[in-house]
Amino acid sequence: MNEFELIQHFFTRSACAQGGExxxxxxxxxxxxxxxPAEHRCAVSTDxxxxxxxxxxxxxxxxxxxxxxxxxxxxxAAMGATPIGFTLAITLPQIDxxxxxxxSEGLSLxxxxxxxxxxxxxxxxxxxxxxxxxMGAVPTQQALLRSGAQLGDLLCVSxxxxxAAAAVPVVLAEIDRHTIPEATLQQLLAAYxxxxxxxxxxxxxxxxxxxxxxxxxGLLADCGHIAKASQLCLQIQQAAVPVAMAARQLxxxxxxxxxxxxxxxxxxxxxxxxxxxxxxLQHAFPAxxxxxxxxxxxxxxxxxxxxxxxxxxxxxYQHFN
Length: 321
Ligand code: ADP
Ligand code: MG
Hints:
Phosphoribosyl-aminoimidazole Synthetase, Chain A, domain 2, 10 helices, 13 strands, 25% strand
């Protein structure tokens, strides 16, 4: 099988490459062509996943396909954008038909969940790596930026945190999975391999949230990005942070809390909005929790039950440190 047969068989013919709304031309020409609806902006984001760095070398291909796309689409959700299409640049050590088939099925499953179509890519040989570029549309002026937080806003998260980070030693087989109760194990693996981009919530938050992002590097580090971009302080009540039950069952309360604060990979949204929006929001999205507020100052302050600041570093994961 040569490069063109590979593209044809596993990508052009895959379920996720059969077009979609606002895809005028998909795979096969020099470029794909997208339609951007009137009064909208095109939202674009790229993510690279390198084997051995972002996922284990022996990662199951079906799950890897789902995770790679979910991680990328999460950025569209965080902007309030509606997905349109994505490209896939894939570097493969060799042609393994079974691996490619499973990968393409995983990719198609997540693409269907997110209503996004594969519109092109590039196929090269080398150590396994994936670069996905996602494109979506968001009404002009309604994109959810990091820079818009306002004094007096509530700080919210879209759901529980910590399960994906807690799952890492299980995924890496540093913890024997047979020692973990089945239900807990399934929740941990799902959190790591199949995060669900918060597209409906992102859509709802258009024109309501003042600032938003998806939590990829850890709650404290990512809230730091909002604080910096908005030139305000984000105060977080530690006791209000929703810690995933599966993380607590695996690691105990204290280590699970650390995963929720500083572990990445959950792809929940963190956002700020006016207090008057809260009741309607929580009615529509019951998993949303208030964890703090926006106040004058800079950076992120983590507070204990007595309102005292808990000093800690929260730099998140950085590749060149
Ligand atoms: P070019 O040389 O013009 O860049 P290629 O020969 O690399 O084009 O690719 C041919 C077509 O196949 C293009 O439309 C490209 O977007 C698509 N393509 C290549 N690799 C992939 C892939 N991994 N997934 C989806 N589409 C791909
Ligand atoms: Mg090419």
